[in-house]
Structure formats: structure tokens, C-alpha cells
């Protein structure tokens, strides 16, 4: 099995990093310190974010924990591999 876009990963790690000069760092720090920014979240935005967030299912966690302790928890390596490949493709595409 071949994973596509493997060249993009190697290229991303091979890029040289330029060290900042002391003057550049001082200028950037002073510009950042003199600038003031703020962010506000509306009640509608907060409500939407709360709805979009996944809910923690304590019962499901307890059931999985009990199955692991009893030695009955089954792992599906194919599903894990498929999910890892899908995540990798998503990261490489973005």
C-alpha cells in the first residue's frame, strides 16, 4: 500500500529556517507591545460553539474501561489504519 503525497511531507521538513537578527526581534517585540487587540464572542457564537462541541459520554468511557479490565475489548486494526491514513491525507491536502 502506498501513501500519496509523501514528497510534500519531506519538502515541508527540508525548508531552511532563517535566524532572526537581534534588531528584527527587538523591532517586532516593540511593535507587538505597542499594539492592543481584543476579541469578543457573541452569545450566539458561544451557543453555536457549545452545540458543535462533542459531548463527553461518561457511560461509554466506563463501558470501555470495564471491557479493557475484563480483557474483552476488541481492537480493529484496519479501522485504526484507515483513520490514520485519512487523517494524513487531510493534513497533506491542507
TrEMBL record:
Responsible for the coupling of flagellin expression to flagellar assembly by preventing expression of the flagellin genes when a component of the middle class of proteins is defective. It negatively regulates flagellar genes by inhibiting the activity of FliA by directly binding to FliA. It comes from Vogesella fluminis. Residues 39-85 form the Anti-sigma-28 factor FlgM C-terminal domain. Signal peptide: none annotated. It comes from the Bacteria. Belongs to the FlgM family. It holds the Pfam family FlgM. Keywords: Bacterial flagellum biogenesis, Repressor, Transcription, Transcription regulation. This is Negative regulator of flagellin synthesis.
Amino acid at each position: 500500500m502506498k501513501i500519496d503525497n509523501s514528497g510534500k511531507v519531506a519538502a515541508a521538513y527540508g525548508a531552511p529556517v532563517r535566524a532572526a537578527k537581534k534588531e528584527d526581534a527587538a523591532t517586532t517585540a516593540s511593535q507587538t507591545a505597542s499594539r492592543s487587540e481584543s476579541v469578543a464572542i457573541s452569545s450566539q457564537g458561544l451557543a453555536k460553539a457549545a452545540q458543535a462541541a462533542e459531548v463527553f459520554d461518561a457511560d461509554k468511557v466506563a463501558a470501555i474501561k470495564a471491557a479493557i479490565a475484563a480483557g474483552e475489548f476488541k481492537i480493529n486494526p484496519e479501522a485504526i489504519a484507515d483513520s490514520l491514513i485519512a487523517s494524513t491525507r487531510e493534513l497533506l491536502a491542507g
